[in-house]
Amino acid sequence: MNTTPAHDARMASMTFASVYPHYLAKVEKKGRTKEELHQVIAWLTGFDEAQLQSLINEKATFADFFERANLNPNAQFITGTICGYRIEEIENPVTRQVRYLDKLVDELAKGKKMEKILRTV
To answer: To which CATH superfamily is domain 5-115 assigned?
Structure first.
């Protein structure tokens, strides 16, 4: 199942600020912390706390967010299904990167060990 151009455009135009509170609520509801969420985001994107806050404040779209990111080279090892899409089969780069982030947040919320989430083991 591949994404449509309309789906890709919608993903690219969504703001990180609109999704971030949902990520935070999801992980905190499962007993994880904001710091752990930020560690996961930093691993994927290279953004520190100040950069994340700046992106939230300016309501950066996911297209802008990932254009500025220094994507971790091990991100390619994030595989599996998220929201009905097999991540490794998504052709649009921005959509794939958003799904990488979604998958990492899911793994964090499901209680996976940080070493596994960050693909260090």
So the answer is: uncharacterized protein sp1917 domain (1.10.8.290)
